[in-house]
């Protein structure tokens, strides 16, 4: 009987596609295996088998599966359920989830390959662009379009290739590119003939006379390869059949040259082969330390969490900064491992993994695996494969994408700094929140979830204190009874008026920084904006350079001497004169971390200064180097964006400067006050973590703002209470669910018509729950105009029904010819 498979493709498609299984592959494929399938005229994709059956589709011609890639499934049955929940809840497709979940190395891509035609002869001189492509292909006859574009330096290389195609100078074919290649090493063993002891003695005699260096190398091999064998019971042939050494290791031990080694290969004595080796740290002998003893307050919190898990699946640990939450996590992890369970430990920022990894490694050694996007894709593939093996990591430490890894016996999920907005995926789909996804994943696997933070999100606080969905455990004492830092507010509005500010620094902040440096202490300066200046302005006419693709001003980066768009990446050189009035008085407005760094170096020339923002931490090692240098006292002043606020633990920080609190308070978002409080409280928590009480200088023009007073008093409950009352009044989360409906199009006039039409259709089914359409703060990104419709849904209403209605309205819109070009996507529970 013919067999068919339903396949999930890495495309934004709402349903699976069915393919026929050739007879020779019928018994090789199972649910969760990867298969290569044709899609469209010439494209091939890696699909995941969702179902195997014998029902042939009647309404379209069925194509055949090309290749089965796996003998064992790469996706577990529970992961399918998790994917389906995510696609359903976050209003996206299974294909969107598939693209986000699997490392790129587990996906084959159909890539256009250009092939040189050796018979091509031209009667006329080719244009320079075409000749450049042909020159590259004559050196390497088959190349991908991506490679040609990179090597030639040409943009829009497809038009050049098309022209060459028309002249039959090249051919084009589609071929599959395997992005993941296992790492291999060259190994050496005796050839089957040389394993005969008598024949090897003849070789000894010949080498002794003619090639003594080759003999020395052979003797080193035999001595090393034969270690551990029992010469009394094992024959020489049996010992040598399983003996091999790394070529690199052998040459190092024998101090031999490759030429000597090649001589033994040519004589047929050595046999060379390649063997896959893992990229992961497989040191199972890592020395570990016993658990630290919890202090009285930590022990009480630890016991309360365990008691809470007897009746609740989710617990919120509200512990002030530097209270020792991580030590409690380590004890809970040890408990889970003792019960044979796995642990998922989520962090909001890759930068945090450096410090946490060291602490966990000391206790759990090789049982810990790390998973995040700064790792090479090949390593991420190997971690995925290890999690499917018989010996998976017991603990996975990672960022939000770690929720997609396969777990077979998950017992505990820890979401550290649960309030962080970086847990929310923005683009592309699925626009999921890792905290919500982790809670659902744990629920599906019967695991417990611990949410930990010094500044809970208002939603989690509501769920723990009002709705009682979560248990609540509080830890209000810092480790070793260290006091919370003294927060000193500074009114920079008054100081600017009196011209007493030194750049972005108040006299008081400079005084405290100077004192800290004299006492060999460290300083953190926080400015939540990277670059040199947020904008450049012509002082004569007010002209401001804008991005050509987006509705934003360009940020000036002094180190690169260029203007950059932080939305689309567009860059341009800083003009020497204003294009509007030809004036030359161009001035930077505002300040980012790069400008702060310049000012600090000018004021404190002897201080060792480092900057930690997106521009300085683009590589995996950059995070580790900056944090390690600061931790070891090689840096005196660390300047950073919100990265420096997230759970980092430094012993010698005595002063923290918040340079401008107003940029956080004045953001047009209903969560602005909550986020401002969280950021300022977290940054303040980096001060005075060991020997003495720290000091925080909070610079603001809004000295009387209630949030400033609440930060100074560390009054989280007051902030949360005020925010909850306000949100209940205006129908915001956690009392209502939000769904943002985004519409995009290149034609702004047409987009306005589309947005008004869709809003009217939504009002016909949702009534007054619909707000908009309106322009978002940035109304054009990458040449696409944007409109936003807000949908507010009561907590008791059926979200499944709301999703059905949204999809129905979207289909109605796209069924009209004039709206075919409309791009619609959804952001459920936006941050």
Q: Would you kindly provide a written description of the structure presented here, covering whatever features stand out?
A:
Helix 1 crosses helix 2, helix 7 crosses helix 10 and helix 22 packs parallel to helix 23. Helices cover 35% and strands 22% of the residues. The longest helix has 19 residues. The strands form 8 sheets. It has a 7-stranded parallel β-sheet with strand order 14-15-13-16-17-12-18, with helices on both faces. It has a 6-stranded parallel β-sheet with strand order 19-29-28-20-27-26, sandwiched between helices. Strands 2-1-4-3-5 form a 5-stranded antiparallel β-sheet. About 1% of the residues have low confidence. The chain has 831 residues and is of the alpha/beta class.
Strand content: 15-25%
The CATH topology assignment of the largest domain is Rossmann fold
Question: Please, what is the average pLDDT?
Answer: 87
Helix content: 25-40%
The CATH top-level class label of the largest domain: Alpha Beta
CATH superfamily placement of the largest domain? P-loop containing nucleotide triphosphate hydrolases
- Gross morphology: globular
Give the strand order of the largest sheet, numbering strands 1, 2, ... along the chain.
14-15-13-16-17-12-18
* Oligomeric state of the chains in view: single chain
Rg over CA atoms, rounded to whole Å, is 31 Å
Number of domains: 7
Q: Can you name the CATH architecture of the largest domain?
A: 3-Layer(aba) Sandwich
How many strand units?
34
**Weakly predicted, low-confidence segments:** 229-233
Q: Give the number of helices.
A: 26
Largest sheet: 7 strands, parallel
Structural class by SSE content: alpha/beta
Gap from first CA to last CA: 51 Å
């Amino acid at each position: 009987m013919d067999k068919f498979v339903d396949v999930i493709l890495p495309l934004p498609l709402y349903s699976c596609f069915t393919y026929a299984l050739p007879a020779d592959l019928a018994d090789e494929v199972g649910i969760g295996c990867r298969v290569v399938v044709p899609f469209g005229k010439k494209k091939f994709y890696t699909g995941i088998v969702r179902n195997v059956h014998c029902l042939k589709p009647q309404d379209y011609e069925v194509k055949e599966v090309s290749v089965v890639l796996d003998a064992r499934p790469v996706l577990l049955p529970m992961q399918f359920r998790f994917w389906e929940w995510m696609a359903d809840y976050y209003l996206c497709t299974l294909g969107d989830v598939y693209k986000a979940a699997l490392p790129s190395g587990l996906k084959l891509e159909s890539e256009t390959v250009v092939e040189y035609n050796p018979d091509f002869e031209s009667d006329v001189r080719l244009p320079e662009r075409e000749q450049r492509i042909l020159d590259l292909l004559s050196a390497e006859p088959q190349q991908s379009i991506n490679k040609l574009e990179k090597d030639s330096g040409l943009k829009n290389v497809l038009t050049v290739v098309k022209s060459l195609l028309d002249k039959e100078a090249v051919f084009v074919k589609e071929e599959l590119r395997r992005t993941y290649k296992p790492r291999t090493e060259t190994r050496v063993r005796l050839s089957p003939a040389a394993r005969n002891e008598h024949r090897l003695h003849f070789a000894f005699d010949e080498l002794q006379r003619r090639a003594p260096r080759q003999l020395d190398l052979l003797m080193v091999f035999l001595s090393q390869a034969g270690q551990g064998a029992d010469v009394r019971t094992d024959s020489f042939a049996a010992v040598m059949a399983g003996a091999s050494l790394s070529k690199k290791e052998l040459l190092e031990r024998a101090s031999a040259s490759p030429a000597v080694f090649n001589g033994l290969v040519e004589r047929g004595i050595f046999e060379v082969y390649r063997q896959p080796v893992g990229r992961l740290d497989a040191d199972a002998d890592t020395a570990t330390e016993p658990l630290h003893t919890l202090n009285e307050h930590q022990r009480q919190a630890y016991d309360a969490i365990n008691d809470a898990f007897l009746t609740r699946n989710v617990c919120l640990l509200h512990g002030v900064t530097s209270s020792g939450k991580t030590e409690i996590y380590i004890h809970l992890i040890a408990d889970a491992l003792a019960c044979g369970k796995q642990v998922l430990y989520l962090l909001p920022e890759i930068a945090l993994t450096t410090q946490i990894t060291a602490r966990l490694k000391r206790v759990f050694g090789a049982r810990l695996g790390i998973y995040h996007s700064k790792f090479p894709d090949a390593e991420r593939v190997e971690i995925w494969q290890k999690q499917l093996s018989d010996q998976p990591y017991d603990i996975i430490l990672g960022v939000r994408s770690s929720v997609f890894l396969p777990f077979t016996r998950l017992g505990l999920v820890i979401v550290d700094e649960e309030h962080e907005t970086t847990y929310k995926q923005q683009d592309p789909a699925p626009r999921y929140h890792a905290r919500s996804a982790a809670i659902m994943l744990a629920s599906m696997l019967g695991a417990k979830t611990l949410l930990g933070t010094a500044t809970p999100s208002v939603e989690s606080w509501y769920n723990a204190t009002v709705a009682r969905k979560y248990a609540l455990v509080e830890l209000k004492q810092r480790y070793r009874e260290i006091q919370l830092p003294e927060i000193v507010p500074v009114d920079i509005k008054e100081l600017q008026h009196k011209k007493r500010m030194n750049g972005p620094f108040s006299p008081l902040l400079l005084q405290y920084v100077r004192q800290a440096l004299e006492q060999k202490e460290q300083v953190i300066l926080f400015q939540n904006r990277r670059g040199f200046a947020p904008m450049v302005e012509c002082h004569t006419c007010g002209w401001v350079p804008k991005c050509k693709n987006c509705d934003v001003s360009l940020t000036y980066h002094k180190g690169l001497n260029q203007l950059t768009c932080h939305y689309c990446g567009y860059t341009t050189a800083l003009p020497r004169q204003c294009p509007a009035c030809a004036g030359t008085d161009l001035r930077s407005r505002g300040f980012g971390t790069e400008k702060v760094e310049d000012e600090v170096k000018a004021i404190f020339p002897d201080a060792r200064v480092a900057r930690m923002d997106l521009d300085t931490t683009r590589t995996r090692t950059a995070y580790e180097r900056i944090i390690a240098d600061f931790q070891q006292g090689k840096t005196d002043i660390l300047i950073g964006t919100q990265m420096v606020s997230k759970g980092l633990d430094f012993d010698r920080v005595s002063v923290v400067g918040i340079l401008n609190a107003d940029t956080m308070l004045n953001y047009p978002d209903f969560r602005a006050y909550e986020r401002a409080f969280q950021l300022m409280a977290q940054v303040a928590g980096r001060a005075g973590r060991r020997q003495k009480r720290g000091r925080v200088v909070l610079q603001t023009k809004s000295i009387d703002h209630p949030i400033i007073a609440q930060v100074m008093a560390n009054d989280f409950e007051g902030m949360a209470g005020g925010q909850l009352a306000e949100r209940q009044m205006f129908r915001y989360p956690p009392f209502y669910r939000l769904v943002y409906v985004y519409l995009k199009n290149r034609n702004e006039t047409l987009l306005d018509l589309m947005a008004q039409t869709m809003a009217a259709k939504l009002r016909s089914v949702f009534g007054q729950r619909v707000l908009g359409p309106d322009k978002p703060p940035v109304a054009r990104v990458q040449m696409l105009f944007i409109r936003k419709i807000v949908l507010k849904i009561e907590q008791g209403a059926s979200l499944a029904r709301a999703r059905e209605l949204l999809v129905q309205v979207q289909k109605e819109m796209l069924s009209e010819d004039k709206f075919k070009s409309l791009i619609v996507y959804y952001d459920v529970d936006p941050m």
